[in-house]
Amino acid sequence: MGDLASKLDKAYEGKSVADLADAPVAALQGVSDSDAEHLNSAFGIKTVRDLGTNKYFLWAQSIAKLAE
After folding, report:
1. What are the residues whose beta carbons fall under 8 Å from the beta carbon of 31, sequence distance 6 or more?
2. Which candidate, 14, 2, 42, places its Cα nearest to that of 50?
3. Positive or negative, the Cα torsion across 26, 30, 31, 33?
4. Is residue 54 helix, strand or coil?
5. What is the phi/psi pair of residue 22, to 5°?
6. Which residues lie closer than 8 Å to 4 by C-beta, 6 or more apart?
7. What single DSSP character describes residue 28?
8. pLDDT for the residue 2
9. Is the pLDDT of residue 22 over 90?
């Protein structure tokens, strides 16, 4: 996973993994508040944990891995 801090918004650098899992999805670098609103509207995703455990994203990740 490399340098975790480089994947986070500055405000979330140094937080524990448990805190990051429950952080808003916009805590991820490159995910805007608008993107987060769209993820919530479309998939009910509010937190990093929600994003990481969303069945559709997990299915897509599995298919991509199998296609390698």
Report:
1. 25, 39
2. 42
3. positive
4. coil
5. -95, 5
6. 20
7. B
8. 60
9. yes
Specify whether the CB–CB gap between 54 and 43 falls below 8 A.
yes
Least Cα distance to 47 among 20, 24, 15, 30 occurs for 24
Q: Token pair of 52, please?
A: 């990481």
pLDDT of residue 9: 95
Residue reference for tokens 């009910």:
44
Q: Are 12 and 23 in contact (CB under 8 A)?
A: yes
pTM for the full predicted model: 0.89
Q: Which residue from 23, 29, 36, 24 is spatially nearest to 9, judged by alpha carbons?
A: 29
- Residue 7's CB is within 10 A of a number of other CB atoms, namely 15
Which segments of 1-68 are extended strands (E)?
Answer: none
